Every structure is written in C-alpha cells, then in structure tokens.
Please model this.
Amino acid sequence: MKTILITGCRAPIALDFSRSFFTEGYRVILVDSLHFPIGRWTCKKSSFYRLPSPRFATSAFIKDLKELIRKEEVTDVIPLCEEAFYIAMHKHTLKCNVWSCDSTLMNTLHNKQLFYEMAHTDLHIPETKIIAEFTDWEQSNAYVFKPIYSRFAVATIIGKSIESDFISEQEKTNWIAQKLVQGKEICVYSIWDQGVLSAYSSYYPRYRAGQGAGIYFEPVTHKKTFDMVKQFGHKIKAHGQLSFDVIIDISGNPHVIECNPRGTSGAHCLQDQLASSFFGKEKMYIPTKKSSAIKYGIAVYKPFIFFRKEIRNSRDVIYSASDIKPFMLQLISILELFYVMVTKRVSFLKATTYDIEWNNDGY
Model:
C-alpha cells in the first residue's frame, strides 16, 4: 500500500486530494508549516504534521521532511503549494518518488522572464521584457507589469499609463513588462508522469479574491489550449503538476501569460479522479462539468452575489457530508491567516503564502 505525503495542506485543493486518495485506500499524511491549515481538519487522512517554514527555515524543513518520510515509510510526496520549489531542490536526496520537476526547470517555469525565453514559441507567450530593458513608456497602457516572482496578481499593473520611475532602479531587474492581450482568461491544471499527460482540466475564474486568485471555478474546454499544453509538457518531460494562465483572444487563439509548476484550483475540477490521475492504469482523466467554489471566499469577497443560483448550485470545495470538520472549523484556519496578515503587515492573500513563497531566495 502506498503512503502519500501531501504538503501545503493549507490549500483548499488539499481536501480534494486527501479525500480522493483516502477513499481509494491509500495512507494519506498531510503536512504544513501553519498550525491550523484547512487540511488539518479532514478525517480523510492518517495523520497531520507541522514542519518548519520552507522559506525561513529551509534546512530544518528539509531535515524534518526526510525524517518524516523515513518514519512514515512514505512512497510518494505531492507538493501542492510553493514549498514545491524547496522540495525540488532536494528531491534527489529524498528516498521516495517526488511529484515535481527538477529544481532548475521549476525555477525556469516560475520565473516569468526565464519562462518567456524558454517557451514563447511553443506556448505563444506575449512579448515579455525585463523592465530594465523596457523603453516603450509612452505606450505603457498596452502592457502588463508584474514581478518575475509573484502569485495571485497581487502586484500586477494592467493597462495603466505609468512612468519609468514607478519602481526603483534596483528593482527593475525583478519586474517584467508583458504585452497586453485582450480576451477571456482561463486557467489550466494538468498532471504529468515523466512527460505523459495523466489528467487535464481548465476553468474560467468568473469570480476572484482580489485581482488574481479564483474563488469560483467554471469548467471550460478549449482544444487549441489542450493541444498546446500537451505538446509542451511532453517536450519538457514534465513530472507532477503543471498549471498555466491563458488568454483566449477574439480569434480563439490561446496566449499563455504565465506558468505555475505546482497545484492550483484546477484540481477541484478533477475531484475524486485525482488519485487515479497519479496512479491509475489509464492516462487521461476528464474533469467534471459542475462548477466549484470556495464559498467562504465568495461570502467574504463577493457577498452580494452569494445567493445567486449559480453559486448555490456550485459544489463547495470545503463541505463534504462524509468529512464535515473542515467546513465546521474553517474559521480557525482563516483566523490564523488573519493573524499572519496583522503580525507580518501583509495583505490577506500574501499571508496565505508568506512562509512558503519561492522568490529565488538562496537559489
């Protein structure tokens, strides 16, 4: 029997992962550096462990992770959040299968400038430049500006006229300018086994928390995007999870604007197929057609739409009749994030990744 260690169980997708693997008969170990991540409350697990912060105590995190793998006889590690980058750096020393690409490829995919240089012809990425080399300031409203390492679009500037001094000289090598493409954004999530596509989903993030993070996931299909992602993942021999943000232009052509080589909310669209996506005999799983939502997120960020029919009919990714504690105790998990927000003086979205972010620190 395989023992699956899932890290980053603060992510709501951790519930779908643990429920799927546990139901299929696997031993499930959940790990996080928060005290009360949402995954801690699920009954669909064997145990939960708190480890040191991957970002601020990397050596201790890796040391404790190795000991946990030995102690629990772990066969597979599936990182869900940005701790994946720290794990990838040491995956060759971990005595189990780690579902991630190697550390160099992980960093290249995450770094928005390196990603463009590597993949712009394969994935039709809009023209992207480091701001230190950008000169078209008179047309700045035709570009998107964002840090080369970022998540949830928390610092992204879209379609605004700005001056060259909006960011300090020393930071201009840490930001990129990307040509703005008009169209509909969809998000892609995929699972890979040494270059073989195991599962694929894409969704339209109709409602968001802030500018970037989706809280309502409406499944969509787009064949051109699927074909493009499948070819690219095979080319780079992707292993683990690979996610993309894509703009579909008015002509129906996809343009990839960034890559996340880790778990994202598209996993909600696969639900109980997640375990089979990693270890099933078949190698292609199609997502559900039912929309999902983080309903507490809807209540906080979009309270005036909470009782709309589409929200009522969507699946709450936290609630499960056979696993009720995450729904009942989610407020405790949210309060811990508010504590991080207040004590570290960051936004709520930044608080969700504060201690696990990968910004090439010490790479």
